[in-house]
Design goal:
Elements lengths: L1 E6 L2 E4 L4 E9 L6 E7 L6 E7 L5 E3 L7 E6 L4 E6 L8 E8 L8 E2 L3 E6 L1
Parallel strand pairs: 2-11
Antiparallel strand pairs: 1-3, 3-8, 4-5, 4-9, 5-6, 7-8, 9-10, 9-11
């Protein structure tokens, strides 16, 4: 089992930046893909970004491409989401997630961290 703990959320103004962090512990060797999802008020959870532990390849939702950057620190078992030029529509609970391979299902989730962007 993998445990995921997010941090870094907060209340910011439009145009500001935030960096989220997700620390993985437990059976991390069974996980090669880490991702970020978000769920805004009254919305379904949606994919934001993902990164592979082994080669660092990344993917982004179109809505955040060019503004958000995902990165990893293998030594710290930590994945980051740098969020720049934040917009009110980025307001959501952000969740960290893990899966074994690029094509498998997400099987581990963090508790979420709230990001609120005020206009």
């Amino acid at each position: 089992q993998v445990q995921l703990v997010e941090s870094g959320g907060g209340f910011v103004q439009a145009g500001d930046s935030l960096r989220l962090a997700c620390v993985a512990s437990g059976r991390t060797f069974s996980t090669n893909v880490m991702g970020w999802f978000r769920q805004g008020p009254g919305k379904e959870r949606e994919f934001v970004s993902q990164i592979l532990w082994n080669d660092g390849s990344t993917a982004y939702a179109n809505s955040v491409k060019g503004r958000f950057t995902i990165s990893r620190d293998n030594a710290k078992n930590t994945v980051y989401l740098q969020m720049n030029s934040l917009k009110p529509e980025d307001t959501a609970v952000y969740y960290c997630a893990a899966k074994m391979t690029r094509h498998s299902d997400w099987y581990a989730w963090g508790q979420g961290t709230q990001v609120t962007v005020s206009s």
